[in-house]
Design a protein that fits this description.
Radius of gyration: 23 Å
Strand content: 5-15%
Biased composition (Low complexity): 503-526
Pfam families: Complex1_51K, Fer4_15, NADH_4Fe-4S
CATH topology of the largest domain: Rossmann fold
Number of strands: 13
Shape: globular
Domain NADH-ubiquinone oxidoreductase 51kDa subunit iron-sulphur binding: 325-369
CATH class of the largest domain: Alpha Beta
Distance between the termini: 52 Å
Region (Disordered): 178-201, 499-526
Structural class: alpha/beta
InterPro entries: ComplexI_51kDa_subunit, Nuo51_FMN-bd, Nuo51_FMN-bd_sf, Nuop51_4Fe4S-bd, Nuop51_4Fe4S-bd_sf
Number of helices: 20
Largest sheet: 6 strands, mixed
Length: 526
């Protein structure tokens, strides 16, 4: 069984590093080392920054691939039209079990990411920066980096910067979920399709992109467009960060120029010479069969042209010793369990799709296969977020890529191979996410509605329309224990207390089927 990936796996580079420069010198680039490796950075005016992003064809690296210059201009236009200060948000909520590239950047090169975010904030005139994270190590690294720059969430500061910690869940990395949590709400998609460039954190125009995107912006601002474009393909210059796992000898994050053959990257991680297929883009990505993967090259356009996806930058090969549809079934059950439970296509449709694939593997025949296809078609483009769409695309891709294996299950007695659990899953609650056995309670006889508690632990306490906490108590996960105690100490009315919660129990994950033989900028200014 493939063990869950560590927060910071091995890091390799093909060619000259852009984002991972200095990784061979130290484990983590603090501000002094960061400036030695990358050099100083001068601010750019808004249109100059947008023109730079356009010149290097910079697109979001979180999955959607939206042009960064377009997003930057949209936020600037909305801010001018409304006369509002925009907000900049770094999405470091990398919660997919097969992805670690953004986590690596925020743990090992946090100042490169902050450079890009602060460049954008300066260009837009933003006065608020939010960095969304979900892991202990990432939170500690970002908080330390902000402290090194003298940045914090202090009232009256030129720029207020804070870290938004959310639980490790697939849906918490969705942009609207991060915005909602930054506003003090639950880290779940709200179900309303509103562009963050129009209305994001606090209702203000918000520039939101993932950590790798901001890091590339910082590199391009230092090198200039002409030099940046010397690396990679002409129409898609620069490098990409990929997370290699699955059937590999050494799970790793690797920085490669666009245009490198995918087979070379797989060999670098120790993938087997004979493959059944390769999952590209992660668990919302697409499968490539072995022949297609052999000829594919690393770029967004090239992968899409051959039926794959760059997506979140995860690449997972499968060897010939495991059932590929059985492996896909394990992921389908996990995706269903990661539902926010807020809409029918996700809450009902994804479990039904997982059961449909299980029926196919159990010998349900053509009827079961057609039922599976009907369910996956039904959930697409109807969800409150993109989770149903990505999950359905993953299942459809699996059925299309492994036609021989599918025929063996539908028309015969199965492929005869076991399910080895090669694709990594987060099948247990991380220690930091487990309940601490305590709860944060509000004494209504004392509470005066100051609201400081909601600023300190927004994921536990949300304020109602009257300005008072909307709930009397909240279970405290381990990662929030220290801040819960700080909220108690900061309450002017002494209306908060942390007490034992005997009803608390670790969150149980749904059981997964076992495989059987036939189943499947702030540069430190004073």
């Amino acid at each position: 069984m493939n063990a869950p990936l560590p927060d910071v796996p091995e890091v390799r580079v093909v060619g000259l590093p852009l984002l991972t420069a200095g990784f061979d010198l130290v484990e983590r680039l603090d501000l002094a080392m960061h400036l030695k490796v990358h050099g100083p950075l001068e601010p750019l005016a808004g249109e100059h920054l947008a023109a730079l992003a356009e010149a290097v064809a910079l697109r979001g690296r979180g999955g959607a691939g939206f042009p960064f210059a377009t997003k930057l201009r949209a936020v600037a236009d909305a801010a001018i039209r409304r006369g509002a200060r925009p907000v900049v948000v770094v999405n470091g909520s990398e919660d997919e079990p097969a992805c670690r590239k953004d986590t690596v950047l925020l743990n090992r090169a946090p100042h490169l990411v902050l450079d890009g975010a602060l460049l954008a904030a300066e260009a837009l005139g933003a006065r608020t920066l939010v960095v969304g994270v979900t892991r202990d190590s990432t939170e500690a690294s970002v908080r330390s980096a902000l402290a090194e720059r003298g940045l914090g969430n202090r009232r009256g500061a030129h720029l207020r910067a804070r870290v938004q910690r959310n639980p490790v869940r697939m849906v918490t990395g969705e942009s609207s979920a991060l915005v909602r949590s930054a506003d003090g709400g639950p880290p779940l998609p709200p179900g309303r399709k509103v562009r963050t460039s129009d209305s994001g954190v606090g209702g203000a125009p918000t520039l939101l992109s993932n950590a790798e995107t901001f890091a590339h912006l910082a590199v391009a601002a230092r090198t200039g467009a002409e030099r940046y474009r010397r690396t990679g393909l002409r129409d898609e210059p620069g490098t990409v960060l990929l997370t290699l796992s699955g059937a590999v000898a050494r799970p790793m994050v690797v920085e490669v120029p666009t245009g490198v053959p995918l087979r070379y990257v797989l060999q670098l991680a120790g993938a087997p010479p004979l493959l059944q297929g390769v999952l590209t883009g992660g668990y919302h990505g697409m499968w490539l069969d072995a022949a297609t993967a052999h000829d594919a090259v690393v770029s967004r356009a090239a992968l899409e042209a051959c039926g794959g996806a760059l997506g979140a930058g995860a690449v997972l090969p499968l060897g010939v010793g495991t059932c590929p549809l059985g492996e896909s079934l394990r992921v389908a059950h996990w995706l269903a369990a990661e539902s926010a439970g807020q809409c029918g296509p996700c809450y009902l449709g994804l479990p039904a799709a997982a059961r449909g694939l299980a029926d196919v593997l159990e010998g349900g025949g053509p009827t079961a296969l057609e039922a599976l296809r009907e369910v996956t078609r039904a959930v697409k483009r109807r969800g409150a977020c993109k989770h149903p769409d990505g999950s359905a695309a993953f299942l459809e891709s699996a059925v299309s890529a492994f036609t021989d294996d599918l025929a063996a299950h539908v028309l015969g007695t199965g492929c005869g191979r076991p399910v080895e659990g090669v694709l990594p899953l987060q099948d247990e609650t991380p220690d930091a996410e487990a309940p601490s056995g305590r709860k944060l309670a509000v004494d209504w006889t004392l509470c005066q509605g100051h609201g400081l508690c909601a600023d300190i632990v927004p994921e536990l306490i949300q304020l109602g329309p009257d300005g008072f906490p909307s709930a009397a108590e909240a279970a405290v996960p381990r990662y929030a224990e220290a801040r819960a105690q700080r909220a108690v100490r900061r309450c002017p009315a002494l209306a908060l207390r942390v007490e034992e919660d005997p009803a608390a129990a670790p969150r149980a994950q749904p059981a997964l089927p076992r495989g059987r033989g036939r189943r499947a900028l702030g540069s430190g200014r004073p």
